[in-house]
Specification:
With 211 residues, the protein is mainly α. It is built from 11 helices and no strands. The longest helix has 26 residues.
C-alpha cells in the first residue's frame, strides 16, 4: 500500500520550470538600451549637466531598482552610455569613409543632423572625454588620409598645417555652433564646408605646382 502511494506521488510531481535565457538576456538588453537612450535625451535637455538615476527612472518609466540591478552606479551607466555613443558614431564614420574626401566632409554634417541628440550628448556630457579625444584624432587622421589618397600633395611643414586646418573644419562643435547660433541645417553647413575645402585644396595643389 505504501509503495503505491510513493509511486502516485512521483507521477504527480511537476517538471522543473525551464527558463529561456536568451529571451531574458534580450529583454535585459532592451531595458538597458531604454535607460541609456533616456539618459542621452536628458543630457541634451540639460546641456551635459548631471542627471540622477531618479530622473532617468521617471523619464524612462523603468523602476529605480531595475536601473540599479543593471547598472550598479553612475560610473557604470556613464561607461555604458559612452560605449553606446562611440559605437554609433564610429559606425557612421566607417560609412562616410567609403566616400570621397569632399563627399565625406559634406555628408558628415547631415549625419550630425540625423543623430543630433546623440551628437549633442557626446559633445557636452561630463563623461567620456578621453574616448572623444581618441575618436577625434582618429577622425582627423582618416580625413587627412583621404586627401592624400585622392590628391597629389607633397607633405611638408606648410602643407601639413593646411591639411590639419582642413580636417579641423569637419567637426561636431562647428556644426553645433552654426546650427544653434545661426540656424543653419547640416545640409547647408556641409555644402559650404565642401566649397571651403575644395578652395583650400586647389590653393595647396597650385602652390606646390608653382614650386
Amino acid at each position: 500500500m505504501a509503495k503505491r502511494k510513493v509511486l502516485k506521488k512521483v507521477k504527480t510531481q511537476k517538471k522543473p520550470r525551464s527558463y529561456d535565457l536568451s529571451s531574458r538576456r534580450e529583454k535585459s538588453e532592451a531595458v538597458s538600451k531604454t535607460i541609456i537612450e533616456t539618459l542621452v535625451h536628458l543630457l541634451v535637455e540639460s546641456r551635459g549637466a548631471d542627471v540622477s538615476f531618479k530622473e532617468v527612472s521617471i523619464k524612462s518609466k523603468v523602476p529605480l531598482r531595475t536601473i540599479f540591478r543593471l547598472f550598479k552606479d553612475k560610473e557604470e551607466l556613464h561607461r555604458a552610455t559612452d560605449d553606446y555613443l562611440t559605437k554609433i558614431i564610429s559606425s557612421s564614420v566607417s560609412e562616410l569613409a567609403k566616400l570621397s574626401f569632399l563627399a565625406f566632409a559634406k555628408n558628415t554634417f547631415s549625419v550630425y543632423d540625423r543623430n543630433s541628440d546623440l551628437v549633442i550628448a557626446y559633445l557636452f556630457s561630463s563623461f567620456g572625454r578621453q574616448a572623444r579625444e581618441i575618436l577625434r584624432r582618429r577622425f582627423n587622421s582618416l580625413l587627412i588620409e583621404q586627401i592624400l589618397k585622392e590628391r597629389k600633395i607633397k607633405l611638408n611643414p606648410d602643407s601639413e598645417v593646411k591639411l590639419a586646418l582642413m580636417a579641423s573644419l569637419v567637426n561636431a562643435k562647428l556644426w553645433y555652433d552654426l546650427r544653434t547660433d545661426f540656424g543653419y541645417s547640416g545640409k547647408q553647413i556641409g555644402e559650404v564646408i565642401e566649397w571651403a575645402l575644395a578652395t583650400l585644396l586647389r590653393e595647396v595643389e597650385a602652390s606646390q605646382g608653382r614650386k
